[in-house]
Amino acid sequence: MHRKKTVKRRPARRHSSHVNLAPLRRFFSWLGSRKALPVWLGGIIVCAVYVFLFYSLVNPYGSRWRAIFSSTVALPEGYSILGIDVSHHQGIIDWDRLSAATIGHVPVSFVFIKATEGETLIDRQFNENFYQARRQGIVRGAYHFFSPGVSPLEQARFYLRQVHLEPGDLPPVLDFETTGSLSANEIRKAALQWLREVEEKVGAPPIIYTNLKFKETYFSTPEFERYPLWIAHYYVPKLRYEGQWRFWQHTDRGRVDGIKGYVDLNTYNGSMYDLLRLCIEEDEE
Q1: SS3 for 180-245, per residue?
Q2: What is the pTM of this model?
Q3: Catalytic residue among 119, 128, 177, 252
C-alpha cells in the first residue's frame, strides 16, 4: 500500500490594519529640530526669489518679456516726435550714423544727455555728446542726476558751471529718482531749491525727470505743476498718468543705429513746433 503523503500547510498570514507611523513622527520631529533650519531657510530663499522674479518680470506687464527677448520694441501709438537719452553707458556713439537713424521709420528728433551728478561728477562723455548733438542738428538737452544728502544749491551751481545751454536747446533737466535718507518734505524742498536756482540763471523752468511712482509720491503738490514733466514708465502701451506731461521714457531696451547696445527711447507729447517752442529762446536785447 502507498502511504498518503501529508502536506504541511503554512499558517495563513494575518492582515493587520496597523500602520507604522514611527518614520513619519521622526520626520516631523526632525523638521522641528535645529538640524532642519538650513533646509527651511533655503526653501524660504528659493520661494522669495521665485516670487520676486515673477512679480518683477511677469506680473506687472506681460510685455516685459517681449521687450527683453524680442529684437524689436513696440512703440507707443499716436506719437510722431521720438528721441533718446544717453550717457557714458552708451560708450562711444557714432553720431554720423545716429543722425541718419530712425526709430520705427521716424527720425531721432531730440536727445537728452547726462551732464552732471552730485556736486563733483561730470559724465565722461558729456562734452563730446553735447557738441556732436548740436553739430548733427538734433535738439539737445542736458540733465543732472540729483544726489540726496548733498546741498541742492551746490548741485545746481555745479551743473550751471559745467553746462552752457544755447538758444534752441531744451531747458535744464533735474533727474530726481532716489530718496536717500530724506523725508517726503525734504525731497520736495531739495528739488525746489535746485529748480529755482537753475531757473533764475537760465530764465526757463527746468524739466523734472522721474518715474511714475516717484512723481505720484513726491512731486504731485501744486508747486511742481509749472515744471515740464519727463516721466519714466516702462513696458506699457499707454502712459498711466492722468496729469500733464511733455516727455515719456517708455523703454530702456531700445536699439538705434550708431549706438552699441541698448538705449532709452522717449516720445514727445506734441508736435515738432511745440518741441521747438519749449526750447530756450534768444535773449532779447
Answers
A1: CCCCHHHHHHHHHHHHHHHHHHHCCCCEEEEEHHHHHHHCCCHHHCCCCEEEECCCCCCCCCCCCC
A2: 0.76
A3: 177
